[in-house]
Design goal:
Layout lengths: L1 E6 L7 H9 L4 E4 L8 E5 L2 E5 L12 E4 L4 E2 L1 H13 L8 E3 L3 E2 L3 H13 L11 H10 L11 H22 L7 H16 L3 E2 L1 H10 L4 E4 L24 H5 L8 E9 L2 E3 L12 H9 L12 E3 L1 E2 H11 L3 E5 L9 E10 L2 E3 L6 H6 L1 E8 L16 H14 L3 E5 L7 E3 L9
Parallel strand pairs: 1-10, 1-11, 2-5, 2-10, 5-7, 6-8, 7-9, 11-15, 14-16, 15-19
Antiparallel strand pairs: 3-4, 12-13, 16-17, 16-18, 19-20
Length: 431
């Protein structure tokens, strides 16, 4: 059996925490796309773990964590993360990395930053971690993969070919110094090959054999639906497929194995970087959400843009991901507000729309139409059961469930594992 966890907004929904919760019932946790532009935060016994490349389930000793072929990996960052966890007593000995996952090399972040600078006011707001250029090289078929670290001759040959093009860009277009083939080879082949070789292998066979033997697999998506390269608010998106379909292409496990698809949604909504945001707030409520919700990027520390919950977006996410259930996070952040708003439709050029417009210009012109609900104005962090929640909080969650049309299985009321309330809808992901 396989379960997929996906973000349903613009990321930062709290996927890491719920992957960590679900992982206690699983045998394997698989990251299938993205790179170290994705920060997943897990808090256990008041200890905070900020993970970038490693699957969130790695904190359980019984889990086999897997990095799938759909990811792009900076090997130096990965080694630092493994060492960081080791210093905190978390073993990564069982980690498996697909030999087909692509490498982020030194020229990728520099190219990322150069492109952003050249875009000027039209910049996309990337993390400048080299994610987009690495995926571009993959599509151009000039990328290097994890398996190339294991063969020095192939690594040098592929890198030489890539640098012929990259150094032309740097010297002729961006007026930067060229990269040295020998320096990159010395830096990566000597250290990375020795360090990472024990982890690299055939993860497709590994995962299929696990399924055939009755093991439970959890696929962890990074970023979110509206940052998906095909289905997000293009061009203000990431460079991979963050939706549930990406779990198959990014792991080699076919869609028939994906029995449960769990969407994660914050009780309000945030995004980082540029792009349309119909329910965005720019007032004292936005400031309150930022501070109360600690809405700063796990990796970049950038302040997140905040707005009211948008059910138009969630209905779209439910469709393109085939969601079987929904998890609502950070309900506690709304606790101090006297009044809450939920976007139920858009008005675009005088027309009311309950479904997402297909055209990007229409999305920029969308005016949210709100339903207003009363707040509960009290802390939720110590509540253990749904029946103990304020009636206004229950009404808010039930309204979201009705509007989106997907059963809600869990509600998060704080960052700790135990600050999670099981809703009364039967869940598909947990026995």
């Amino acid at each position: 059996m396989a379960t997929v966890v996906v973000g349903t907004q613009w990321g930062d929904e709290g996927k890491g925490k719920f992957v960590d919760i679900l992982a206690q019932h699983m045998d394997y946790v698989v990251r299938y796309q993205g790179g170290h532009n994705a920060g997943h935060t897990v808090v256990v016994d008041r200890q905070r773990f900020a993970l970038q490349l490693l699957p969130s389930g790695i904190l359980y000793p019984h889990i086999t964590p897997v990095i799938g072929n759909g990811m792009v990996i900076d090997p130096l960052v990965l080694m630092e993360e493994i060492e960081m966890l080791g210093s905190k007593g978390i073993s990564c000995q069982k980690l498996k990395i697909s030999g087909n996952a692509h490498l982020i090399l030194p020229y990728h972040p520099e190219l990322d930053a150069a492109i952003e600078r050249n875009l000027g006011k039209n910049r996309l707001g990337t993390t400048k971690r080299g994610i987009g250029p690495a995926y571009a090289d993959k599509a151009l078929r000039v990328g290097l993969r994890m398996q190339d670290l294991l063969d020095e001759d192939i690594f040098r040959e592929k890198l030489d070919l890539a640098l012929q093009h990259k150094n032309l860009l740097f010297t002729q277009i961006y007026k930067r110094a060229p990269y040295s083939l020998s320096e990159i080879c010395d830096r990566y082949l000597k250290r990375c090959k020795t360090y990472l070789a024990p982890y690299i292998g055939d993860t497709v066979t590994l995962l299929h054999e696990a399924l055939e033997s009755g093991k439970r697999l959890l696929f962890e998506g990074a970023q979110a639906t509206f940052l998906d390269l095909d289905h997000g608010t293009y061009p203000f998106v990431t460079s991979s497929n963050c939706t549930a379909g990406g779990a198959s292409t990014g792991s080699g496990v076919g869609p028939r194995a994906m029995q449960s698809i769990v969407g994660i949604a914050k009780a309000y909504i945030t995004r980082v970087g540029s792009g349309p945001f119909p329910t965005e707030l720019s007032d004292a409520i936005a400031d309150h959400l930022v501070e109360k919700g600690h809405e700063y990027g796990t990796n970049t520390k950038r302040r997140r843009r905040c707005g009211w919950f948008d059910t138009v977006m969630l209905r779209y996410a439910a469709r393109v991901n085939s969601l079987t259930e929904l998890v609502i996070t950070k309900l506690d952040v709304l606790g101090d507000l006297a009044e809450l708003k939920v976007c139920v439709a858009y008005q675009i050029d005088g027309r009311k729309m309950r479904q997402l417009p297909y055209h990007q210009s229409a999305m920029h012109r969308a005016v949210p139409l709100y339903h207003t609900l009363p707040g509960w104005q009290r802390s939720l962090g110590d509540i253990k059961e749904r029946r103990d929640l304020p009636s206004q909080a229950v009404d808010y969650v039930e309204f979201l469930e009705e509007e989106v049309g997907i059963p809600i299985s869990w509600v998060g009321i704080g960052p700790e594992r135990e600050q999670t309330i099981k809703w009364n809808t039967p869940t598909h992901a947990i026995p």
